[in-house]
Input
Amino acid sequence: MAGYIQEFDSHPNDKIDADLFNNEYGLLNTAFTTTNGHNHAGDAGNGGFVPMISGPNNRNTIAIFEDTNNIAITTDYNGIKITELTIQHGEFKPGSNDTLDLGDYATRFKDLHLAGIANIGTLSVGFTDASIPAIPNELIAITDIFDDDSLTQDSATALCTQQSTKAYIDNSISTSSGIFRQSEYNVRTTTLALSGADTSYVESTLTDIQVGSKVHINATITASMTAIVGTGNILCRVYRDGVDLFNTDYYLVNSMNDSTLSNSISLVDTSPSAGAHTYSIRLRESQCDGIAINGTITVKEEKA
Output
């Protein structure tokens, strides 16, 4: 034992007095001091290895098992010795499933850093106080994350992946008609203010058109006509980037008498290329001298 060398060695008929015992006890006392006494390193002059630290009832223990190469921590639970935690190479785990908490609300660990995968039964987002029940729409226990492109799971406690969210939106748009991109630069409305000259026209530009989209052209016209000879007509043609798109005259208004009439047209450009395009409506009158026109032209991109 470190710090202790036996000095008292008695033989038959030797004289034994108090000084011999006092000296030997003093050497033992020195060997057990906390600063320079012995240890249990298992080497010469020291104590042997200690495979277990235990309380007086052998229930609260820290034990080392050489045969299984693990360390076990046990506690006394209602008079029963329970294994709370085991440690061995590559594993740090509770003694049994779903029994050991890692901290509590009052005494919590700080940051959690993981390099691998977190397998969690339930993730409580926004948790504040275990004694306060969850508030609807404020505290949600997340139980799953689904890869569900159709969103048919309809769960109030699950999230879906980014890919599923995108797939659902893309599928919904591609299978629905009349869904328009309502951003400011994809919807253009222009007010008509035209005379009756054959060259009068109004135009509207739509930018950032996507591949495969359709463009809807809508025009509403109110025309006041006078001095009609026969039948007075207001006709129009639709152009894309200066090229006649449909090669057709569309009759907006026709009348045999001086009148103010309204009408509208709705046309679809089914194959615009991607990018920016300027759409124009060009008007011309037939068999009437006086004409005043007002109205609107709207172009919208329908997403592919």
